[in-house]
Amino acid sequence: MSFKTEIPDARQFPRYSGVCSFFRFPLSPQPRKVDWVLYGVPFDFGTSYRPGARFGCRSIREQSAYIKPYHLFYKEDLRERFSIVDGGDAPVAPYDLEKNLSLHEEFSSAWRAQDAKTFAIGGDHSISVGNMRATSKALGKKLACIHFDAHTDTVDRLWDNAYTHASPIRRGVEEGWLDPKKSVSIGIRGPVNSATELDWGRDQGLEYICIEDFREKGLDLLRAFKKKIGNDPVYLTFDIDCMDPVFAPGTGTPAIGGFTTAEIISALRVFKGIQLVAADMVEVAPGLDPTQVTSLLAAHLVFEILCL
Amino acid sequence: MSFKTEIPDARQFPRYSGVCSFFRFPLSPQPRKVDWVLYGVPFDFGTSYRPGARFGCRSIREQSAYIKPYHLFYKEDLRERFSIVDGGDAPVAPYDLEKNLSLHEEFSSAWRAQDAKTFAIGGDHSISVGNMRATSKALGKKLACIHFDAHTDTVDRLWDNAYTHASPIRRGVEEGWLDPKKSVSIGIRGPVNSATELDWGRDQGLEYICIEDFREKGLDLLRAFKKKIGNDPVYLTFDIDCMDPVFAPGTGTPAIGGFTTAEIISALRVFKGIQLVAADMVEVAPGLDPTQVTSLLAAHLVFEILCL
Amino acid sequence: MSFKTEIPDARQFPRYSGVCSFFRFPLSPQPRKVDWVLYGVPFDFGTSYRPGARFGCRSIREQSAYIKPYHLFYKEDLRERFSIVDGGDAPVAPYDLEKNLSLHEEFSSAWRAQDAKTFAIGGDHSISVGNMRATSKALGKKLACIHFDAHTDTVDRLWDNAYTHASPIRRGVEEGWLDPKKSVSIGIRGPVNSATELDWGRDQGLEYICIEDFREKGLDLLRAFKKKIGNDPVYLTFDIDCMDPVFAPGTGTPAIGGFTTAEIISALRVFKGIQLVAADMVEVAPGLDPTQVTSLLAAHLVFEILCL
Amino acid sequence: MSFKTEIPDARQFPRYSGVCSFFRFPLSPQPRKVDWVLYGVPFDFGTSYRPGARFGCRSIREQSAYIKPYHLFYKEDLRERFSIVDGGDAPVAPYDLEKNLSLHEEFSSAWRAQDAKTFAIGGDHSISVGNMRATSKALGKKLACIHFDAHTDTVDRLWDNAYTHASPIRRGVEEGWLDPKKSVSIGIRGPVNSATELDWGRDQGLEYICIEDFREKGLDLLRAFKKKIGNDPVYLTFDIDCMDPVFAPGTGTPAIGGFTTAEIISALRVFKGIQLVAADMVEVAPGLDPTQVTSLLAAHLVFEILCL
Amino acid sequence: MSFKTEIPDARQFPRYSGVCSFFRFPLSPQPRKVDWVLYGVPFDFGTSYRPGARFGCRSIREQSAYIKPYHLFYKEDLRERFSIVDGGDAPVAPYDLEKNLSLHEEFSSAWRAQDAKTFAIGGDHSISVGNMRATSKALGKKLACIHFDAHTDTVDRLWDNAYTHASPIRRGVEEGWLDPKKSVSIGIRGPVNSATELDWGRDQGLEYICIEDFREKGLDLLRAFKKKIGNDPVYLTFDIDCMDPVFAPGTGTPAIGGFTTAEIISALRVFKGIQLVAADMVEVAPGLDPTQVTSLLAAHLVFEILCL
Amino acid sequence: MSFKTEIPDARQFPRYSGVCSFFRFPLSPQPRKVDWVLYGVPFDFGTSYRPGARFGCRSIREQSAYIKPYHLFYKEDLRERFSIVDGGDAPVAPYDLEKNLSLHEEFSSAWRAQDAKTFAIGGDHSISVGNMRATSKALGKKLACIHFDAHTDTVDRLWDNAYTHASPIRRGVEEGWLDPKKSVSIGIRGPVNSATELDWGRDQGLEYICIEDFREKGLDLLRAFKKKIGNDPVYLTFDIDCMDPVFAPGTGTPAIGGFTTAEIISALRVFKGIQLVAADMVEVAPGLDPTQVTSLLAAHLVFEILCL
Question: What contacts B71, CB < 8 A, 6 or more positions away?
Fold first, then answer.
């Protein structure tokens, strides 16, 4: 790329000043040629329990102002490595889950047409299909998928609707954007509704790393999966509820016993070097978290994912 | 009615004990012959700003446990005057505003078939049309309407949808359940989107008592309206955002400068003696209110309304 | 008195510094000759709904640090007018309501023996009887009583106990410390448990100024009562739940429709010049109030009462 | 048992709808023949520091609505395995710790007379003795005891009272309901009041697994204890303050350095297969926890314990 | 002006979407020819009690997204009447109160050079002097001043510093930017530090309308002041702590007994038609307010002030 | 020392009663001969992001009331081992970072002149230099330093100021109070501003144990450092932001991925037996933490450090 990312120097301009863009990156309402675009999708009409993720992008923008650009462990400066912009928020279609996906896909595609990798920041998990579609279509192939979540997200229909936050992995596979044989769901745990919860996914070839598997066999399972996908283009979808509710209270459908921050950081770092082509961070509902540690964590993890 | 309402005696059984029903009234999952049924409608897919009203009925049940049965000002005991039950929650249709209204109407109608007056506790304002329909159909006539709200709720369509929380008054009039000539909206205030905000309503004959009118001419405007409706059957719909946000922080679309509790109580008491046939209390979003004073107020106002 | 009250000068020592005593007054663990002693009674085993008032004195100490000493309206400096100390907390007897009163009475009496007027800061309303007893015994006569409250506090027994927070006025009258003919309860409101709520008090000659009376007849009722008590020694007991819950969310048994701060200040100022001999401020439960405005208000009202 | 447990299907009826019973299990005000009864004991007059556990049962009911019935790790459906009901709340005796225990014992015994196993949900830890008594008497033998807690709960008397939340283990042993030689307290940690804290228990034969022991020797200590108790009937009492305060902020007497959720789940799973006959979950004080993660965790742990 | 203000249509684009600028007005990092520029001054090193106002501008931007453009009472559309932009945040100098004022003055002057009226959004009250200086210098004359506040802000020095948040009115007068004979401070109230609190101001000719004056003589005092200033250029400085703490909990130095929203709106509306040339809104500290009603109110009042 | 520390017996006097001193230790406004003095430094004008640490000492005093005196793991009673007092708060100089350090140094020196070891409780990290200076000067030698922190605190100047909370380690070394060759910073992690973050420290000989180092090599690195410093006098400075934000939400500059309580306790216990001569606990900002778990943790860690 021909430019690097300009960020106000925090030792001159306090991090609490200025209009909030993601990580204080430059705003770019129009698609342009960059390495990555981060954009919001303020939509949570796909939730099934506690709503509020529509305010996730606003809150992550705010908390990300405090995230600095240099990765001490990788010894890399994000500003030097990539050109990145904040693309603003995608248009949304309240009350209409399918139309919302179309608008999102269109928005994402416009950036992809500029060769930008697209990082969608939700919003609830229903939004992911829009970014999957745009990416897979643009690349002309199915994507490998790394899916962090407490839930499988392979419900067929919820209250008669096919595109809720309970189904993105199923729709992604069924519509042909994800390659289930190169997909893994990490952090799955119970209690669940029934004994058949994992059946559909396993039938498709999806790999499940339940939280108990993760705690028993350490990071080896992740390393094996990394090897399996090799240089394939990867979509990473991160549902913040994969975390233990204590580490991410601001989410709609919390599940006890999830990842700690130390665990999730070590898990993500296994994937250093994969061919990441698009990503999303979803299900941050800031109104449920009085300390905003969920948004701060989400911002931190977006930073970690960009550094992969 | 042949029975009076049994409530556990709080001087024997603490108000913080037991499963939470509205005002500790008896639960009645099946429709039966009573004076009033209170029921919840846990639905907030009709909101346009901050969601969370789906948890309103749960929270109002909880806070209402502390409301005692004797009205010191009217010198009446609610238990003696009416047979009342908690009918549980109406079935809802997440993601589908129209179907949700049909389910609600059906639920309300089943109680109406038992001659019960129906008090719906939301949920967002989109739910009101269900109770309006059931009541008007059962009575075979248009209803007078007393509407407390910061907003006119006469938007035609919001993001292409006709049945959101911005439209119940318009739909109620257009579908023929409300008589606009005998309807009043109290507490309306700005800022609003455009100069035409009140036009549609005024064209129909609806009366608007803006908050400035209320503060200037005291309660006379309300007394005049009461006289106009006489003995007509009345639907009372109470959107908690008619209150100043300080008195009701737990609501999705707050508007500065609304009613205080002293004002709203004196306003409601003007209507003592009207022919109330159905009512609702909507837009309580408890997750936005760390002290739950909104739900406590809503419970108190339901008590005041029942005593009318 | 031979000394005036020393307070750290806030323009030199910030109000947020130092160990928290009431209003930054000097600590005095031992009884001594002063005009007023303020002390805490951290006890809330007398509550019937939401507990937490045991932390009231701690929180009022904290918030009172910000209250300055000069009364702009009366044009008086509290430091110049009185010698005042913080006497620490009275010993308490958790689990035993009667023993707790005895300990409180003994503590209060020790100060009274030094001619100090005693201001007890609760704690729940059950504690008041201790200070009433000590004061009345020391003065050898019944006290007039000004009682701000949402509740009558004349319940005979609650769950078989005679000394809970629902009974201090009844016990004070029955035990002979208060003169019911010179007592008034201000701010009473419903809903209540039964039609007989006010009967016992009225039979004794107690005056009730319900909130509706207060709003209708302004301050004249208070002025009339002030005239009636003349120069009699007065006990003022202030239950913070006389306020509207919005103005005092941190209390255990909130009642909608109470005083605003403007109303309560104008009500208190009517009593300027009465012969105040002892007082209490009770039912502040700070854990129920995330902004601590209740404790700040309570501290402010203690200041107003001292200036009477 | 002749019936299985009916729960509303959450894929049809949202988990946020309806009157809140534990886990959405059927309500059963009267004792009946079931495998397990869950009931509340809304009582916290036994606390010594921060109160509020009287609201624990209400909050756990609310949060448990989101807990699904199928245990992904054990591959068991709670609905299929047991008939379970919510028995409502036991009667309580505010202000009187001993009478409260009698009422609780009586309530628990009535269910035990129907062969129901009894799971009491507090409330503070003082309530446990009621369920211990009922269970031990009905079975006619001393119970083994698994006790999760930060504290030993073997204080003889607190402020002259023998039945506070600091003494249930001591009273259980002394009164003959628990067999100290088959009892273990897990998660004990300091700081404590004195060097003699563990002496009484050790003299009785009680085993202590301090948090440092747990972290050093992993789960082996638990496995050894499980072996020791074999098929003996077991009472499990779970004080939520065994958790680190970050994982369970909503409790009255928090102690730094406790269990994480991952640790506690792995600890509980060691006991799969024991002969559990009664249990309790205590010390959840929801007012101290703005995110309600404590109640969600408590509900989850009740689910894990039922699945033992 | 040659353009009107473009705002995303909220009936098409939800108010919760997009990067947060004040009222969703266009961002303009560079000074340009407009009627009004709104900008932030994220600085709170001038506070004397509770800090946090540095986050005021961020929070007001966020809450202002919900404020609509049409003033229902004045029947005016802000978009039609003025060209307005969000100028971003002024540079600040943490740790250095005087340098911070210079930076602010310079920033404000740059906009004034484009004939833009300047509305500074704080930050604490120390920032006001920067905008006063820039405005008065550009206009070449002293400004009349309308000052809403609980405090006089005429302290000479606080802990040896002349430019803290306790002194802006004094500095403004002493440095010659404000005309004390045409200045009024509204909402002043006690308790204060000493009897001399109002002396300096009165000596200069400043008018004080204490809260008791306001409540007694209604709006007549304000009307008289309006008449006095006639067509003089006016600086309006609004310290949110003029409000009662219940209406504006998010502020550093709260004072009991202040304005209600109804009172403040009626007070502001008296000034309709004055020659407003610059303004500020200060002392919003959002971290102290869990419901963000303070920021919402502040945003609403900025809207009311712009409509003057 | 000639006396041991008297603490009110909590089994007689509840821990929630009385004026709050650190750990309920005796207050001693004047310097006197004791083993340790704990005192507050309520100052946070050195912060660069979120303020509020000026209230840290007040909140730690409050939460420490619940910390008991006997260390169950070390089997030691703090009261028996040391004479300890609460020295109140050091004077502070708001707005002036350098003067504030001088006042602090003077206060600390006065206690040191009585042979008291000094434990400063902040306040932000800028305050540490005051205690370092006083201690090093009194002992006449450079101090070894154990520094727990997420940040290196070796920034030269921040917004032109040399004595902010970003520089205490650098100033301590440059001014000659700390021996960099015997100093270690533990818990350092990114993201940081630039690649040179650790350069200055390493050039001086400072050791860095980043969080990744800590997790990989366990406690061996700490043991090696302990060996290196042997019997040298040690200054321990504890910035609470070394913790993961979930364990210490109440801090101004949180960094994801820090210590858990279990980790930090095991880390501190490595240092049992070092020659600790002074210490501080800084950056607790209680207003950012609705549950006050940060202050409780800080109090607990002060207890652990005193027991070293």
Answer: B77, B78, B303, B304, B307, C190, C191
Per-residue three-class SS string for chain C:
CCCCCCCCCCCCCCCCCCCCCHHHCCECCCCCCCCEEEEEECCCCCCCCCCCHHHHHHHHHHHHCCCCCEECCCCEEHHHHCCEEEEEECCCCCCCHHHHHHHHHHHHHHHHCCCCEEEEEECCHHHHHHHHHHHHHHHCCCEEEEEECCCCCCCCCECCECCCCCCHHHHHHHCCCEEEEEEEEEEECCCECCCCCCHHHHHHCCEEEEHHHHHHHCCHHHHHHHHHHCCCEEEEEEEHHHECCCCCCCCCCCCCCCECHHHHHHHHHHCCCCEEEEEEEECCCHHHCCCCHHHHHHHHHHHHHHCC
For residues A155-177, one letter each, b for 16 or more C-beta atoms within 10 angstroms of the residue's C-beta and e for the rest, the string is beebbebebbbbbbbbbbbbeeb
| C101 to B170, C94, C96, C130, D287: CA distances (angstroms) | 61, 11, 9, 5, 28
Amino acid at D275: Q
Which of F55, F88, F92 lies closest to C19 in CB terms? F88
Q: Check which CATH number belongs to the domain holding A128 and give it.
A: 3.40.800.10
Q: What does R_g of chain B's alpha carbons equal in angstroms?
A: 18
Q: Which pTM does this prediction carry?
A: 0.97
Find the chain E residues whose C-beta atoms sit closer than 8 A to any C-beta of B: 10-12, 14-16, 66-73, 75, 77, 246-247, 260-262, 265-266, 290-291, 293, 296-297, 300, 303
At residue B1, the pLDDT reads 44
SS3 state of residue D291: coil
Residues of A in contact with E55 (CB under 8 A): 16
Q: How far apart are CA E97 and CA E44, in angstroms?
A: 9
Give C192 to chain D, closest Cα distance, Å. 20
pLDDT digits (tens, 9 = 90+) for A254-271: 999 999 999 999 999 999
The whole-angstrom distance between D6's CA and the closest CA on chain B is: 15
Q: Which amino acid is at C199?
A: D
Looking at residue B91, the DSSP 8-state letter turns out to be P
CA C214 – CA C211 distance, rounded (Å): 5
Whether ipTM exceeds 0.90: yes
CA-based nearest residue to B152, from B118, B215, B199, B90? B199
In a domain, A93, yes or no: yes
Overall residue count recorded for chain C in this entry: 308
Cα–Cα dist D75/A196, whole Å: 10
Burial class (CB in 10 A: 0-12, 13-18, 19+), F34: buried
What whole-number distance in Å separates Cα of residue A87 and Cα of residue A79? 17
Question: pLDDT averaged over chain D?
Answer: 96
D30 is a domain residue: yes
The rounded distance, in Å, linking the Cα atoms of A151 and A149 is 5
**Which tens digit of pLDDT belongs to each residue from E191-201?**
999 999 999 99
- The per-residue pLDDT for C5 is 86
Within a domain: C49: yes
Q: Is residue F10 part of a domain?
A: no
Q: What is the mean pLDDT of residues F143-150?
A: 98
Domains held by chain B: number = 1
Q: Give the tokens for residue F245.
A: 């934000």
> What is the rounded distance in angstroms from the CA atom of residue B241 to the CA atom of residue B288?
13
Q: What is the pLDDT of residues C164-215, one digit of tens each?
A: 999 999 999 999 999 999 999 999 998 999 999 999 999 999 999 999 999 9
Amino acid at A255: A
CA distance to partner chain E, nearest, from residue A275 (Å) = 30
Q: Taking a C-beta distance cutoff of 8 angstroms, is the pair F111, F37 a contact?
A: yes
Average pLDDT, chain F: 96
Q: Which domain holds residue B71?
A: 22-306
Cis-peptide into F87, omega within 30 deg: no
Q: What share of chain B is helix, strand, coil (3-state, %, to 5)?
A: 35, 20, 45
